[in-house]
């Protein structure tokens, strides 16, 4: 899998193919073991946010009023 800290080390198609294959293998193994519930988690790095710049939201962002 491509690390979000080092984008561009592999072509996008290769990264996608690898991620899909690994995901399929993990889910297929879970099914074979009788696991019926799976939680898939992610992080904000899927948005492509750099680590050296604060995200455009957080404690300093204005909060909507109810």
Automatic annotation (TrEMBL):
InterPro entries: Epimerase_deHydtase (IPR001509), NAD(P)-bd_dom_sf (IPR036291). Residues 12-53 form the NAD-dependent epimerase/dehydratase domain. It comes from the Bacteria. Gene3D superfamilies: NAD(P)-binding Rossmann-like Domain. This is NAD-dependent epimerase/dehydratase domain-containing protein. It comes from Nostocoides veronense. The lineage of its organism: Bacteria, Bacillati, Actinomycetota, Actinomycetes, Micrococcales.
């Amino acid at each position: 899998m491509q690390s979000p800290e080092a984008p561009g080390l592999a072509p996008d198609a290769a990264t996608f193919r690898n991620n899909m294959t690994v995901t399929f293998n993990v889910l297929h193994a879970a099914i074979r073991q009788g696991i019926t519930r799976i939680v898939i988690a992610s992080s904000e790095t899927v948005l492509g946010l750099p680590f050296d710049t604060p995200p455009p939201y957080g404690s300093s962002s204005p909060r909507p009023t109810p």
